[in-house]
Each structure stands twice: as structure tokens, then as C-alpha cells.
Amino acid sequence: MSNPYETQRLVDEYLLFHYGQDHEILPWENGPVSALNFPVRTVTALLPPSHAHAARALDIGCATGRSAFELSRTCAEVQAIDFSLAFIKAAQTIQSAGALSYQISLEAHLTQPLTAELPPGVHPERVTFQQGDAMNLPASLCSFDIVHAANLICRLTEPLRFLQRLPALIKPGGHLLLTTPCTWLADYTPPGRWPAASTLDWLKETLLPDFTLAQQKDLPFLIREHARKFQWSVALGTVWQRR
Q1: Is 187 helix (H, G, I), strand (E, B) or coil?
Q2: What are phi and psi of 126, to 5 degrees?
Q3: Distance of alpha carbon 121 from alpha carbon 129, whole angstroms
Q4: Three-state DSSP class for 167?
Q5: 73-100: per-residue pLDDT in tens?
Q6: d(Cα 203, Cα 240) in Å, to the nearest integer?
């Protein structure tokens, strides 16, 4: 199966998801406004106050980069990795040029041009974007104060392999900011590698030997497909402190 995250349609959809203004994403007054700004809230709602000025952060599955830029507000160094080269190139363009033009779907063949802009107050010079595989991270990658992984694990063919790598990535006292909509699909993860029970129970079984569960929070999010069709989901948000 070809990787849909390399297509221009998905790049545009995620640029809107990450950088779109509220009215651009949701043009309906009675829509679920609490689900907007998810790539920002995965940082602001989960980052512990004790790490408000962390030294090093790692954003795994960074997509088009908004959460990595948000981490740069308080972190001196942010490494951001995504498997999609198209996503990484889009994030790098926004980082270097300050903006990137894209198209959103209205309906049928109708589209609307928009521009993704670097958010004010972030520090793009602190961020390094690179293509990489969350299941095959280099051994040299380690000693982070913060690891951020938003809606990643249920898109991996071997999610357990990624989770088992986390203790070596995070220094003692550091934190893992993890979200997932618990949407397990055979297109991405073979059913034999799905959690046997709930995703939260599986995460506890896997992570608790090395981490303490510090926070659990539901985080709704909204992805626009076109002007009249949206994906409204609720991600399970958890914060884990490395022992």
C-alpha cells in the first residue's frame, strides 16, 4: 500500500489542521469549537509546569510541524521527526520562509487557496526537522526532557517496538506527552499487534515499569475534509514521568 501521507491532499489537510485559523477549519457557528487547535493543545494542556523551560524536546510523528514550533517556545532544542518526507518538507518550508501556500477543498472540484504561517512568538531556529521512522530510531537519540508523540501509535505497524524504545529516549524525571484516538485499523497495524484490552490498559502494562502515569485527559480534535465534512474524534491524552 502506498503511503497516503506523501500525497498533496494529505499535506494540505494537515497544513489546515496545524496552521488554519478557526474560521478556516470550521466555518459553522454551531460546530465543535472545543476541538480546534489540537496541535497546540497537545503541548499546552499536557506539558507539566515543572518542564516549562525544558532543555531538550523530541517530537515524534511531528507531521507538518505545529507542535514542534509550540515546544520551541519553552524548549531550547527541539528535534522533530516524521516518516512522511512530504510533511517534513512542508514544515521546513514554513520554518525557513515563514509561510507556505496550499489549497483546501470546498466541494467537488472547488478549492480555496490559503497560507500556513509560522506562528508568532515561536523560535524556529531551535527546531530541527528530519525524516525518520519511529520504530527504528537511532541509538544515539537519547536524554530528552520531553518526548511528544501525538496520534502516532495507532498508525505504526509495530507500536510496541516504539513504546519499548521510550525509556532510553527520556532522562529520569523527564516526561512523555502521548495522545492517541485509539483508532486501530488493519491498514496501518496488523490486528495481531492491537491491544488485547483497552489502549489505556495496554499502555499501563507497557510503560508503568519505567514510568509513572502523571495525568490523563481527553483531547477532542477536528480534521476538515471539505466544507461540509469533518472528522471529530477524542484523543486519549496521557502524561508519563520517567522514573
Answers
A1: coil
A2: -85, -10
A3: 19
A4: helix
A5: 999 999 999 999 999 999 999 999 999 9
A6: 10
Phi, psi of 216 (to 5 degrees): -135, 130
* Residue 153 structural domain: 4-242
**157 Cβ contact list (under 8 Å, min separation 6):** 135, 188, 189, 190, 193
The DSSP element (H or E) to which 92 belongs, if any, is: helix 85-97
* Identity of residue 33: V
- Long-range CB contact pairs, 33-40, < 8 A, 24+: 34/220, 35/220, 35/221, 35/222, 35/232, 36/222, 38/150, 38/219, 38/220, 38/221, 38/222, 38/235, 39/63, 39/66, 39/67, 39/70, 39/150, 40/66, 40/67, 40/70
Q: Which phi and psi (to 5°) does residue 139 adopt?
A: -65, -25
Q: Which residues contact 115 (CB under 8 A, 6 or more apart)?
A: 99, 100, 101, 102
Look up the pTM and report it: 0.96
Query: Per the structure, how many domains does the chain have?
Result: 1
What is the rounded distance in angstroms from the CA atom of residue 190 to the CA atom of residue 52?
A: 38
Phi, psi for residue 110 in degrees, rounded to 5: -80, 135
Percent of the chain predicted with pLDDT > 70: 99
DSSP code of 53? T
Q: To the nearest whole percent, how much of the chain has pLDDT over 90?
A: 95
Q: Which tens digit of pLDDT belongs to each residue from 29-55?
A: 999 999 999 999 999 999 988 776 779
CA-based nearest residue to 23, from 12, 37, 11? 37
> 77 in helix, strand or coil?
strand
The CATH code of the domain that includes 191 is 3.40.50.150
C-alpha separations of 182 from 63, 84, 91 in Å: 18, 21, 26
